[in-house]
Amino acid sequence: QVHLVESGGGPVQAGGSLRLSCVASGDTIDTYSMAWFRQAPGKEREGVARIAPTSAYTMYADSGKGRFAISRDNAKNMLYLQMTNLKPEDTAMYYCAADLLDPAKWYQQSAFQYWGQGTQVTVSS
């Protein structure tokens, strides 16, 4: 069982940057693929970025390519999402996820087993 807690969200103006963090407890994360998802009001939760257990590769949804960077520090049991050039459409609750069950559909909520409670990102124009 992995417990995930996100932090780092908040209000930011368009064009600004934020760094989200996720700390894991209950188990080490070095064997888990992990990801960041987001969910805006009235929309489905969607994958933003995914990272392999050893950071060997990363994958991004089109919405974040070139602006977001996912990284991890397994020694600290931490996952990060660096977001730059933020846009109002990036406004959402951002969630950390661990333990990928379905790699082919990593961008769907059902693909991951463990979830954090989320951190709100609000981008104003």
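Next protein, fold it too.
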Amino acid sequence: QVQLVESGGGLVQAGGSLRLSCAASGRSFSTYSMGWFRQAPGKEREFVTAVSWNGRTTNYADSVKGRFTISRNNDKNTVYLQLDKLKSEDTAVYYCACRPSYGTPTTYSADYHYWGQGTQVTVSS
């Protein structure tokens, strides 16, 4: 069992930045692919970004490429999401997810077995 706890959400003006963190429990964090998804009101949950177990492979949704950056610190069992140049359409609840696999950091939510409770990001225009 893996527990994920997100933090760092909040209210920010368009063009601003936020840094989300996701702390994971368990001894095997360094073997997990990690992802971030988001869900806006009235919309389905969508993929944002993911990183491989060793941090060398990343995957981004087209809508966030060049603005968001995922990273991880395996010594701290934590994955980060840096959100820059935020837009109003980035407003959503952001979820951290864990895929207990050495495999590719995929875009499919069904590949991720464990989820955090989410953190709200609100971008005002």
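About the second fold: The first strand starts at residue 4 and ends at 7.
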